[in-house]
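Two folds, back to back.
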Amino acid sequence: MNGGIKFFEFINPPTTRIAGSSNEILLNNILLYDKKKVWRSLGSANGKKEEIQIFFKEAITFDRLFLINHNWSDFKIYFTVNEQEVILQNVTTINNIKCSLDISNYEHSTAYFEFDSIVVTALRIEIFKTKGDDKEKHLGHIVLTNQLGELEGYPVLETEFDSGIIKQCMLSRRYRIYRKDDIFQAKLHFKNYPSKFQRDLKLIYQINSLSSFYLWACGGRIGKEFYSFPLRGYKAEDLFKCMVSADVTESFSSNIFVNNVNISLAISEVV
């Protein structure tokens, strides 16, 4: 993990059943790409274990796991592999910290784990404590995915959050303004990009061919050590399902074919 922009495969897990220790009616929310919907326990407290189980119709293969928008401090994640439950030990999490999937005192509201590719038929999470005082345990979204690649260089990333603002001028000449949900959009500019980063350019052409993918601008590094200010789009929870939304533009610097290249592409959040 070098902290470059990461891209991940979009996987729609073939689930047969989701079960939990409380409020099961909301559990389907955790597999939806909908930031407004969450699972929340009922009548929980620190010391009272809650459980989430996901059973897959067929075995799925993945090497990355996100738990987005949660308030857990102590939890365990079990994978069912060859009909046996296992807790992975050699795992990398946010800010390149090594850990197992038996977690204590987790400080972030989004969890991210890197591990060797694994084939799984079920997943189970035990949640024991929340951060701070007793609270209902919650989870916004779980993402099982495979990493497509991580940029080694640092292109210019221009982010925008389109609020769909509508301005209506009233008789008083004042405005009535309506805002909708923010939609993530971005432009990636590889300006005067050297040939030593050819792997980055191949990755860009790969995602250009996909119907959807995840973009994670922070690349797994967060905090004051890496960012002077936590801009939107660069937080750990800012994992966006996207698609390239305009034709890629390409040129050689100064139109000399042995020079570095310039490539730009536009990316938009999709459903």
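---
second:
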Amino acid sequence: MALVWISVVGAVAAIYVGGWWVSQPMVAWGRWGFRLALAALLAGLTLPAEAVNAVVDVLSAVLPGLSDISDAPGASFGMHFVLFSSVAGALLVFRWDVKVSVLLAALMGLAVGTEGLQWPIPGRYADGWDVLTNGIGIALGGVIRWGVLHIGLQPRLH
């Protein structure tokens, strides 16, 4: 089991380091927003269920009713959707200098990869529907990019 945890932690660290590197040219607030969103995505999708529940309990002190929402039907869909649309939106908007096909391929790799990382984690499971939900979140990020660039904005790079 220790080897599994080392592998998962290593994969998560590699993904985060890659995201850190990709975000270097972004304007400062976009870069830190992306990094925070990526950290939330990786934690939310790769921590054991008990750890996620503990985080929800702590956050419920600040956000009353959060635990009720997290237990509601569709909460998993919402979490995947919000996390992936946040990461995709930031990446696709602030890295407009990179071909959109490259970014979309990387984001879909992240969608499949994070789902695969859940497989060995206690209390978590890999699900194709979650990959689809991740893809819908990525698609929203694409719509956000289209909207930003379509109205003539071109976020500056670092």
